[in-house]
Amino acid sequence: MTLVRGECVAPGIAVGQVYLRGFESNGAGPRIAADEVEIELNRLHQSFEKSRVQTEEIKQKQADTLGEAELRIFDAHLAYLGDAMFVTEIESQVIQERFSSREAVQLVFAKYDRIFTLVESDLLRRRASDLRDVATRLLRNLEADAVRGGDAPSGPYILAARKLTTADMFNLDNEQVEGIVAEEGGMSSHAAILARGMGIPTLTGIRDMTKLLRDGDLIVLDATKGEMVTTPSDIMLAEATTNSQRWRESQEAAAQPSKESKHQTRDGTAIRMFGSCGSPGEADLVHTFGMEGIGVYRTELMFLADGEDPTEDALVANYRDVIAAQHGNQVSFRLLDVAAATLAVKAPQPERNPAMGRRGVRGLLAKKSVLRMQLRAILRAAVDVKNVAVLVPFVTTLSDMQRVKAALVEERVGLMKAKVACATAVKIAPIIEVPAAAMSLSALLNESDFAVVAIDDLQAHLLGADRDNAGVRDYYETVHPSVFEMLARMCKDADFRKKPLVLFGESAAEPVRVPFYVGVGYRHFSVAPVRLRGMLKVLARYSADECRRIAARILEAPRTLDVQKVLVNLELE
Questions:
Q1: Amino acid 552: pLDDT
Q2: Which of 35, 72, 194, 376 is the most buried (most CB within 10 A)?
Q3: Minimum mean pLDDT among 94-108, 109-123, 430-444, 462-476: which range?
Q4: Tens of pLDDT along 282-325?
Q5: Where in the chain is the domain with CATH 3.20.20.60?
């Protein structure tokens, strides 16, 4: 039995046999003969046609499951499959260089992949991900009779892939995929977005997969904990199978509104639970899970799904669907939070570190046309609706808030003058993820209706550790006293200003930390809908007074080790 840790992309538990994809040999074969060129071209064209048909069928099949923005991902794939330049470049490798169609696809893809992944642009990296999905599907169809392992198992299985791609994740029987483990693939890839949307437990960052697994091996995948267990014992297998079934049942049960689930501590202290989501489909889940609205709606997918900026009318339609799904509950739209390069902002030279560069509000202020289009779309979508807010990402200074707030007022006045129906007022709030903003929260709240604390990013910046970098995972996961001290300090500042604070992020739903959050004064949370039940169970265990005592013990702990001891004792209670 071997336990391997990875990065959780989509939470959940799965047990099943492994099916390996994407580990075929990429070695170059002999050049083809002149009389084989036409045969290879026919194989290539058949692969393109088959890939187009498969992609169209998958899109149609998922039309009732995925939201409009997610479905546009498949439109991007179809665009590549119909790109004459892409097809011609592959054909020329077959005709001029006498490569097989398989090797021609690999060579052309490798060229584009290097170009896209070496630039400092989130958009181009996502395009590389889309192109990789298309190339993978082409290769699968070219190698249909030679792929190691043959066709997918007839029953449920766990997909083990070199890279997390939609080509392997989506076959026409994709409901048989119980879970996914991959060597490579990030949280923001389109495959990751779709895995979360479909509720498929997914883990990435598992190295040397072929040394760990073979087709047919039975494994236990606990993506929530970030763990994969190979050759599990009978006892572990039985327990994991039970837990997997319970997890699936909990997802089904959670999808039904429950009036009995009260959002409060054991002694009745009210806690407001909002959902975090990024598509109309996820927005529907927020309501059906019985949450009180959307605390953070990520607006990036509309801009990144097909590589082109959406029109203002398209944004209005999308935002109206999101608002309508909440039936009058609050909806807070986070403005576009991407690197400046994605917004085509001109710069003297590429940014060496876009994550610390002109991202979020910095990029929007450098490309005001996008900022103002989003603000107009939100105002138009929120006509005759209350409880709509604008969230400003990556705020550092008071000036950031003031400039966005001024733009919001100007756009509302402009719409009213043009006699375009719009909201008379929307709330505005900063997203606190930069330590400097956390330390000056009191001043920021003077310009805001409330504030959102993005705890994952704030912790990453405070500790100087990228949460998606496995090499510094230990630093990011450190329960450093300064993180807890800053969270407590912000609560005091917000209480003094009598403004709400919304705690947002994966760490906001971490069960062992929830008592601390409540103890220092957090009463508003924005988490993924699937995390709601777990949080409610924790809240039901503690009274507000007990939470305050736990928080005091953590704040008194002078070292990381001391904080860890307090948290470990909570887990043992």
A1: 95
A2: 194
A3: 109-123
A4: 788 788 888 999 999 998 878 876 556 789 999 999 999 999 99
A5: 265-572
pLDDT in tens, 55-80: 888 888 877 767 666 777 788 888 88
What SS3 string covers 431-449? Answer: EECCHHHHHCHHHHHCCCC
Domain 265-572 in this protein, CATH class: alpha beta
Phi, psi for residue 319 in degrees, rounded to 5: -70, -35
What are the strands, taking DSSP E only, across 120-271? 157-163, 177-184, 202-204, 218-222, 227-230
Note the pLDDT tens digit of each residue in 463-480.
988 766 667 767 777 789
Residue pair 520/485 in contact (Cβ under 8 Å)? The answer is: no
Q: How far apart are CA 85 and CA 448, in angstroms?
A: 50
Q: Is the pLDDT of residue 254 over 70?
A: no
Beta strands 13-21 and 330-334: pairing type?
A: unpaired
Asked if residue 560 lies in contact with residue 477, where contact means CB atoms within 8 angstroms, the answer is no
The pair of structure tokens assigned to 535 is: 């949080």
Q: Shortest CA distance to 220 belongs to which of 199, 204, 243, 198?
A: 243
What residue ranges of the chain are covered by domains with CATH 1.10.274.10? 2-249
Torsions phi, psi of 432, nearest 5? -90, 105
Answer for the pair 533, 254: CB distance below 8 angstroms, yes or no.
Answer: yes
- SS3 label, residue 33: coil
- Residue 214: pLDDT over 90: no
Q: The tokens of 360 are what?
A: 């979020």
Instruction: Tell me the percentage of the chain whose pLDDT exceeds 70.
Output: 82
Calpha distance 116→120 (Å, rounded): 9
In this prediction, residue 48 carries a pLDDT of 93
CA angle 93, 308, 127 (to 5 degrees): 40
pTM of the model: 0.66
Pairing relationship of beta strands 330-334 and 177-184 according to DSSP bridges? unpaired
CA gap 426, 365 in Å, rounded: 20
Q: What is the 3-state secondary structure (H, E, C) of 241-308?
A: HHHHHHHHHHHHHHCCCCCCCCCECCCCCECEEEEEECCHHHHHHHHHCCCCEEEEEECCHHHHCCCC
Q: Are 195 and 181 in contact (CB under 8 A)?
A: no
- Cβ atoms of residues 291 and 275 within 8 Å: yes
- d(C-alpha 220, C-alpha 15), whole Å: 5
Residues for the chain: how many in total? 573
